[in-house]
Amino acid sequence: RVGGHQPVPVDVRVISATHCNLEEDMRQGQFRRDLFYRLSILRLQLPPLRERVADILPLAESFLKVSLAALSAP
């Protein structure tokens, strides 16, 4: 626990997404600094899909393929 004195073993993976600017929120005191650094070990910044129109068809085809396999459809 943050601020605790006894270690607590955990095995977790956290994936998070936001439209907010967490660095700015942290500077303004609206987001906890310790949580920001724990979450930002690996940061991926992607432009919105509306700015990557060419990616829509390949993504849709991939999702369809995965869905069909999950449903055992031909």
Automatic annotation (TrEMBL):
Keyword terms: ATP-binding, Nucleotide-binding
Positions of the Sigma-54 factor interaction domain: 1-65
PROSITE patterns in UniProt: SIGMA54_INTERACT_4
InterPro entries documented for this protein: P-loop_NTPase, Sigma_54_int
Any one GO BP annotation for this protein: regulation of DNA-templated transcription
Gene3D superfamilies documented for this protein: P-loop containing nucleotide triphosphate hydrolases
Nucleotide-binding is among the record's keywords: yes
GO MF assignments: ATP binding
PANTHER family found in the cross-reference section: PROPIONATE CATABOLISM OPERON REGULATORY PROTEIN, TRANSCRIPTIONAL REGULATORY PROTEIN
Name this polypeptide is given: Propionate catabolism operon regulatory protein
